[in-house]
Amino acid sequence: MPVAATLCLLSIIFAAMMAISQSDLKRIIAYSSIAHMNFSRLGLMSMTDRAIVGGTILFVAHGFVSAGMFFSVGFRYDRYHQRDLMYFRGLTTVAPVFSLFFFLFNLANLGVPLSFNFLGEFLIFAELINIYHFAAPRLVIALIVQVGYTMKLISILFGEVIYFPQSSALS
């Protein structure tokens, strides 16, 4: 189990760092999904009641949140045929309702309190610290990197608005 837990921890950190380095919205969400699923897998592999419940909650919650995020990106892609971050600055002024939902999905993906992702991650984190003492610093690093790519996704909502015409030349 310690070898599998170490591999999951390394995969969480690697996927989160890959998410930060991307500029394509779908790739950022996909790499963040890999990190969350490895975190959930850590909870399921720990074989303790709280961590298994946390892993199951995180599986279900992440299914809803990642589907919402992919739907949001797909919605913008259908309109502009572009998924690059630099084309989506200032969405709060152009699409305020979309921005609100995208912001809420990102907060849930981050695992802020009062979200089911937080509940699942908290149960897993609390139990893993008791079982694998070596995991605590690595989990904290993974959570910090998670904040980095979430802030990168949220940053598209603010800033200077970039308008570009709808044409087939953009695809």
List key phrases describing it:
mainly alpha; 171 residues; single chain
Structural account:
This protein is mostly helical and 171 residues long. It has one domain (2-161). Helices cover 75% and strands 0% of the residues. The chain is built from seven helices and no strands. It has helices at 2-21, 25-45, 49-80, 91-94, 96-110, 116-131, 135-154.
Task: Write the SSE topology.
Elements: H1 2-21, H2 25-45, H3 49-80, H4 91-94, H5 96-110, H6 116-131, H7 135-154
Helicity range = over 70%
- Main structural class: mainly alpha
Which regions have little confidence, pLDDT < 50, spanning 5+ residues? 167-171
Average pLDDT confidence is 85
Q: How would the global form be characterised?
A: elongated
How do you describe this structure in short?
With 171 residues, the protein is mostly helical.
